[in-house]
Amino acid sequence: MALRFALMIDPLAADQTAPDLATTFTAVDPAAPALTVGELSTQRGDGIFESIGVVGGHPQEVEAHLERLVHSARLCDLPEPNVAQWRAAVAIAASECGEGEGVVKLILSRGVEHGPTPTAWATAATAADFSLARTEGIRVVTLDRGYAIDAPARAPWLLLGAKTLSYAVNMAALREAHRRDADDAVFLSSDGFVLEAPTASLILQRGDTFITPAPNGAILHGTTQLSLFEHLAARGFETAYETIPVDELRRADAAWLVSSVRLAAPIRQLDGADLTVDAEFTASLNDYLLSPRD
Amino acid sequence: MALRFALMIDPLAADQTAPDLATTFTAVDPAAPALTVGELSTQRGDGIFESIGVVGGHPQEVEAHLERLVHSARLCDLPEPNVAQWRAAVAIAASECGEGEGVVKLILSRGVEHGPTPTAWATAATAADFSLARTEGIRVVTLDRGYAIDAPARAPWLLLGAKTLSYAVNMAALREAHRRDADDAVFLSSDGFVLEAPTASLILQRGDTFITPAPNGAILHGTTQLSLFEHLAARGFETAYETIPVDELRRADAAWLVSSVRLAAPIRQLDGADLTVDAEFTASLNDYLLSPRD
After folding, report:
1. Which domain range does residue B222 map to?
2. Are residues A16 and A100 in the same domain?
3. What is the CATH number of the domain that holds B229?
């Protein structure tokens, strides 16, 4: 996922009614220095982000991503994002992703300590090739996230529902999964309920019903999961949000990790036990996810 | 704490035996762009740091900080820091802190995605004026950290003993404290034990004994706490590491938050209840902390 393009965004110059938001953007070389060492994103992981899938130049589910950016900003006491400005930035960045699949990343940082605040930018990159994960499936291990399922209700300062830049634990969980000869992880609450993956949502299948962990603040609202649930409902399947004990995941007829760029990756092994992968059905999900979606 | 100076460090060029480590440093303008948008420190809070107090040009407790940097790197699967190189960087940065009190910050980032890795830099800044916090004391609220006291033993991927750049929760806890009309917070485990403050360690006093939470992996090893314990022992006091239920903190004869730059800040109010501040004794602690320490 080498960066092809970067756009610095001036959030202070933005005005919801400005006729030409493009004047608040500055294209920069993604390989050249663009941020100062005083950036709080870099010093404190203090900011929020979104990763938007792009297919053939079309950014997917932009409004859902922008809504989540606004939600994250609110949870983190960051200035309210100017949605019209971010939408314009996504359009420009998406056009720089090239052919095939790409990813546009939006970052809103708390800014520079004692400096202008916030800082914001968008990047465009070619996506990695995830075709193997989509067709062959992935091996997943469950890892304790340390929090009880009711922690977020008690302690909003844990920012569990915000997509912050503080992803060191998510990255460490992926390294732990690799150490265990797996491709990815599923976080469990300390009391044994299924949460989410470090960079994806979980959907499991029980008969003709598709189930995802209830968003109670402990997990991110998954934009790809939301989109897939609409699609599955339109195909006549039941969809449900539930509090899912890990044993229920182990007994599922099938399960997927779904995210904006890798899309639907069927879980073929969970903690060493095989899970059934329905290749044809999974392909139909990814066909949908690769079609232009707004 | 405006930055006065920044030094980019080339960790790949470093060699423990290099005769001139200074050739691996490049001074940069701290107000000018120095980092690319692809930096994983900024995208993922994926890296580690240290903040070293500087008094009259002398960096305090450098070896303890470098040891913790190495410890954090190990927990985060980062390349082993070249301690000789970091020590040389600290000396240069400390000399740029000016008169009075300053702070040298060391950052080791996982680097640029698909680029050179890791990246590293040091900054020098004048410290904020903390004399009021040191003399008048601070109001503190307790906040749930969400984890049980035994979480780190079960789940090392939570990185609880590492000083990572993923500090969004620490910053959110400080904002929550301010919302509650307090100056700072003390984190509690979900099962009610005292951990640490978002950017400081806790020491409490019971008679002639000074107690700090036992380092079981759930908290950082506090360099200032370690130094103060040595000092207190030399003065004939008892020191102890204990698992501290929050009620014990409430019953303490006195308590302090201690850290590298603010130094010893006596807690004058805990969750709205007054605590005794011994101004003279606290001044003696800060006199010690302001003296040159190695």
Report:
1. 131-290
2. yes
3. 3.20.10.10
Instruction: Report the complex ipTM.
Output: 0.95
User: Which residues neighbour B273 within 8 Å (Cβ) at sequence distance 6 or greater?
Assistant: B250
Q: Do the Cβ atoms of B49 and A43 come within 8 Å?
A: yes
> Other CB atoms closer than 10 Å to residue A291's CB: what's the count?
11
Tokens of A53: 């899938």
Closest to A166 (Cβ–Cβ): which among B33, B147, B167? Answer: B167
A76–chain B nearest CA distance, Å: 7
Q: Best interface-test mutation with A: which of B103, B166, B186, B190 has the largest number of A CBs within 10 A? A: B166
Which parts of A119-262 fold into alpha helices (H)?
131-136, 151-154, 168-179, 223-234, 246-250
Query: In chain A, what residues touch B109 (CB-CB under 8 Å)?
Result: 42
Question: How many domains does chain B divide into?
Answer: 2
Pairing of strands B263-270, B138-144: parallel
Q: Are B155 and A144 inside 8 Å of each other by CB?
A: yes
Cβ of A45 and B144 within 8 Å?
Answer: no
pLDDT tens digits for range A188-204: 999 999 999 999 999 99
* Alpha-helical runs (H) found in A190-256: 223-234, 246-250
Extract the tokens encoding A40: 């709080």
User: What's the pLDDT tens digit per position in A256-289?
Assistant: 999 999 999 999 999 999 999 999 999 999 999 9
- If we measure between CA atoms, which residue out of A167, A87, A138 comes closest to residue A271? A138
